[in-house]
Amino acid sequence: MKDLLEILTAARAIEQTGGVAALATVVKTTGSVYRRAGARMLITADNRMIGAISGGCLESDVFERAQNVMRTGDPITITYDSQANADIVWGLGLGCNGSVTVLIERVPASTKPDGLAFLKECIDQHRSGVMATVFSVENQAKVKGGIRLVLRDDETVVSGIHNPRLAKLVLDDATKTLRSQESVTLPFQLPEGRIEAFIEWVQPQIRLLVCGAGYDAVPLVRFAKDLGWHITVADHRPGFARADRFPEADEVWCCTPEALAEKSPPKARTVAVLMTHNFQRDAELLRTLARKPLSYLGLLGPKRRTDQLLEELSQAGISLTEAERSRIFGPIGLDIGAETPEEIALSILAEIRAVLNSHPGGLLRDRKGPIH
Q1: Radius of gyration of the chain from Cα atoms?
Q2: What pLDDT score does 85 carry?
Q3: Alpha-carbon distance 361 to 358, whole Å?
Q4: Torsion of CA 60, 50, 94, 63, to 10 degrees
Q5: Which segment of 271-275, 276-280, 357-361 scores lowest on mean pLDDT?
Q6: Sheet of 21-31: strands edge to edge?
Q7: Confidence of residue 316 (pLDDT cuts 50, 70, 90)
Q8: 239: burial class by Cβ within 10 Å (0-12, 13-18, 19+)?
Q9: How far is CA 57 from CA 64, 81, 248, in A?
Q10: Closest-CA residue to 22 (of 146, 186, 203, 162)
Q11: What is the pLDDT averaged over residues 92-102?
Q12: Of 133, 247, 146, 253, residue with least CA distance to 197
């Protein structure tokens, strides 16, 4: 997400000054690769590269090819295949034993809808959606690479695909992707030829609510900002809830637990961490947040403290469903032996990321099957 935010900021600045850039997007992968479909990199006319599409092996070649795209405006698609023993020929140092297909387009976009504009809309409005991008056209299908169809989460559609049959096929699969929340790359066979499209589920930005503005919240906020998350810090103490203490936070609120829910109702992909170091304050916050549609609610402190907080919740007459209880984590974080505030922050954020991805958070060497 951080890469994308930086790309959107840079692209907007370039468009405002009348400049051009090139956007490289991974649209298809097979085998073992460093970045999955959806990874992006912006190449600017003044030779900057923002974001990354690999571990560093593809960027220089994509940079060179992007120069012509910026001049002509014509999108191109390249496939880098390290499974074909062509590594030495390419001279790219590919060592992942997989293939990566990259679409390179000029920015501003020459076709509508504009892909970057849709991504920015999803982030600004904190909503999800699907963006289907055609990148491969074989034979005489009379369809251009780089054209798109976007589907918002309210099911409104904007299509730049003028072939009615293809538009229907793509929309059907975009609707499936909106429900499954999993991006896919799919072929479409038309009488005129074969077409491939990357159908991308666009996720809203993760929103982290940190309840407690103590010293150990500082690295948590700093690390979360490095991940590109939207961060709100809340504390009832004016001396702690200050913007100068948390320059990376998007919002810093001085408010009571009771006012918290009214101030910002949880949205999709909202996670919260309670770390006030005050039992009664955490109990009040838990009563406020336990029934909210959070994706994750973490309680700092030992297991006994968590059990006591949940017992107080029950005594207050708040009965949690199994699904609501499953979203509460305490003690918080992955078991990495963390001691310092920075290590604890790392442990917490790693657990949140694992929960949101439905991963167990164990050792990759023990994982059976592919990583992704």
Answers
A1: 23
A2: 55
A3: 9
A4: -20
A5: 357-361
A6: 49-51, 40-44, 21-31, 98-107, 76-81
A7: confident
A8: exposed
A9: 13, 12, 31
A10: 146
A11: 70
A12: 133
Tokens of 283: 């109990």
**Mean pLDDT, residues 239-263 taken together:** 90
Q: Which amino acid is at 81?
A: D
DSSP 3-state of 123: helix
Residue type at position 280? Q
The whole-angstrom separation of Cα 28 and Cα 24 is 12
Tokens found for residue 131: 């963006």
Beta strands in the chain (DSSP E): 21-31, 40-44, 49-51, 76-81, 98-107, 129-137, 148-152, 157-159, 184-190, 193-202, 207-211, 230-235, 251-254, 270-274, 296-299, 328-329
Long-range contacts of 339-344 (CB under 8 A, 24+ apart): 341/215, 341/216, 341/218, 341/219, 341/220, 342/219, 342/223, 344/216, 344/219, 344/220
| Spatial distance between the Cα atoms of 343 and 349, rounded to a whole number of angstroms | 10
| Interatomic CA distance for residues 310 and 320, integer angstroms | 10
* Residues in contact with 293: Cβ distance below 8 Å, sequence separation at least 6, in sequence order: 266, 270
Residues paired with 208 in a beta bridge:
231, 271
Structural domain boundaries in the chain: 1-110, 112-204, 207-356
Residue 356, token pair as written in the block: 């949101």
CATH class of 207-356: alpha beta
Whether the pTM exceeds 0.90: the reply is no
The pair of structure tokens assigned to 246 is: 């948390």
Strands 296-299 and 270-274: parallel
- Side-chain half-sphere of 296: how many Cα atoms within 13 Å? 28
Residue located via tokens 């949880």? 266
Q: Which residues pair with 137 in a beta bridge?
A: 195
